[in-house]
Amino acid sequence: MATAARPAPLSPPERWTLAATVLGSSLAFLDGTVVNVALSAVQRDLNATAGGVQWVVNAYALMLAALTLAGGALGDAYGRRRVYAWGVGLFALASLACGLAPNLGTLIVARAVQGVGAALLVPGSLAMIGAVFDESRRGRGVGLWSAASSVMTLLGPVLGGVLVDLGSWRWVFFINLPLAVGVLALLPRVPETSAPGARPDWPGAVSITAGLGGLAYAFTRAGEGGWDAVALGSLAVAALGFLAFAWQESRSDKPMLPLGLFRNRVFVGTNLLTLLLYGALGAVGLYLPLALIGSRGFSATEAGAALLPLSLLLAGLSGLFGSLSDRHGPRLFLTLGPALAGVGFALLGLGQGSYLTAILPGALVLGLGMALTVAPLSSTVMGSVPREQSGVASGVNNAVARAASLLAVATLGLLLVGSYRGALDTRLRAAGASAELRRVAVSQATRLTDLKLPPGAPAQAREAVNAAFGDAFRTVALACGALGVLGGVAGGLMLGGVRTGMRDEE
Questions:
Q1: I need a surface site. Which of 141, 222, 244, 323 has the fewest CB within 10 A?
Q2: Residue 370 falls within a domain, yes or no?
């Protein structure tokens, strides 16, 4: 009986490249999840409002979303290992600044610099694997990188919760420093590679940053102070930024985003699905820990572990559903998966009682929905374009996922604060609170769970405040559920007749 040939062992350069890329990309993946668990402590220590909390997340997401493609081109032009090292070093310095930040403004600026560092190192991870690994082992290298990175992402919220509970939210950032030192120690053993002739699209990067940043700031500002002149001015800046981006991409000979891709039905459909689903995931990922810690009384560790079933299902089932999608086509998976994730989002808002009844069912349904979606989505994005454009398509899809989280946090933050104001008045009135107490509470709605009641306020008033934030989170969770279902509709309508591996040239 014939036996399957054992895979060839990795060469030393391949092993060092894999180690450096897994450890380095873990910096960005950890910070994408670990910080959310620390936000309640950050808000309390730095006296932050809802807008401040959002910008601790958004400053990082904005720079990563806007500069990822430029960072990849920079590595192609000047050497992937060199630019990767720049990104790791910048990320480490920014992490140190975050951990030492004396006030909220400093923390937000340092988070933006972290995002720039992440934009330099994230695209370099797979690019270095693709360039260094032998073609026969490249798929294996990507698989090992994905598995190791998934484990780090899975452990991030739990690690963050432990660090907050045992020490301080500042340790969430300090933990990056030894990781960065380890990466920089490994990099000299990684071969340098480049793609001569590549160059970053800096005008495109600047204009898309203005567009995304202006839009996010407009909605965040409106959530705190209404649609004043500053918020409306930010909308105008966003519109000009997006128009400038479209003009730049249409005239550039090496655009960051080739506009011709938008004539491709499958490319448009998969990115619309990504925008809706990952926007919902980003908003729930931010606001659920705040609700669990500030409203339900969870510790940071418990809040970090709350969605662990989601991560376990995603890590355990993604490979299976990816293989099934290869055999049967992606349409069913990209219709059912996002819709099921939408049900999971809604269940997280509707659940009542203990963790087992309030959170676990939603986490399990959401995890199953994401597991159905993630691998088929990635392969369909890359298979929707000619092979020479697959890298650009994958990069654009990753940037869309980051931008989706940024925009959803801003827009659904507006919904959260508005809902919280109404729920505060209703809940406090039902608890018998005076008109003055209701006025004081409602005026602090932008403080979210860090709302401070006057001395001597009855215990029922604090219970009413906690319940009101639960009501506001429920509204956001239901909105995220609707986004997930709409993502499934987009998948079903736009992917009819598509088979994995088919290059749609429409």
A1: 323
A2: yes
Rounded to an integer, what distance in angstroms lies between the CA atom of residue 472 and that of residue 421?
9
CA dihedral 121, 122, 127, 130 (to 10 degrees): 120
Exposure string over 415-432, b if 16+ CB within 10 A, otherwise e: bbbebbbebbbebbeebe
Q: How many CB atoms lie within 10 A of CB 7?
A: 9
The alpha-helical segments, DSSP class H, found in 226-261 are 229-251
Average pLDDT of the segment spanning 245-260: 84
- Shared domain for 136 and 228, answered yes or no, is no
In a domain, 119, yes or no: yes
CB crowding 237-251: b at 16 or more within 10 Å, else e: bbeebbebbbebbee
Residues 236 and 292 reside in one and the same domain: no
Task: Please name which of 126, 85, 81, 99 lies closest in space to residue 31, comparing C-alpha atoms.
Answer: 99
Token pair in block for residue 395: 């990069």
> Rounded to an integer, what distance in angstroms lies between the CA atom of residue 202 and that of residue 252?
11
- CA 101 – CA 233 distance, rounded (Å): 29
Shared-domain flag, residues 370 and 488: yes
User: How far apart are the C-alpha atoms of 376 and 505, rounded to whole Å?
Assistant: 19
360 within a domain of the structure (yes/no): yes
Q: What is the mean pLDDT of the chain?
A: 85
Contacts of 480 (CB under 8 A, 6+ apart): 280, 281, 283, 284, 342, 345, 346, 349, 408, 412
Q: Read off the amino acid at residue 28.
A: A
Domain range enclosing 88: 12-188
pLDDT per residue as tens digits for the range 161-175: 888 888 889 999 998
Q: Which of 188, 214, 233 is the last residue of a domain?
A: 188
In a domain, 381, yes or no: yes
Tell me the C-alpha distance between 3 and 445, whole Å: 66
Residue whose token pair is 């979303």: 65
Q: Do 143 and 79 share a domain, yes or no? A: yes
Do residue 61 and residue 90 come from a single domain?
yes
Q: In this structure, are residues 276 and 369 in contact, taking their beta carbons and an 8 Å threshold?
A: no
- Global pTM reads 0.86
- 307 and 182 within one domain: no
Q: How many domains does the chain have?
A: 3
Q: Distance between CA atoms of 270 and 490, rounded to whole angstroms? A: 8
- Indicate whether 167 and 62 sit together in one domain: yes
Report yes or no: 277 and 484 within 8 Å, Cβ to Cβ. yes
Name the packing angle between helices 104-132 and 135-166 (round to 10°): 160
State which of 135, 155, 188 marks the end of a domain. Answer: 188
Token digits of residue 505? 């040239």
- Would you state the pLDDT for residue 389? 66
CATH number of the domain to which 123 belongs:
1.20.1250.20
Statement to judge: residues 246 and 267 lie in one domain: no
CA 349 to the chain's CA centroid = 20
Find the farthest-apart pair of alpha carbons in the chain and give their distance in angstroms, rounded.
84
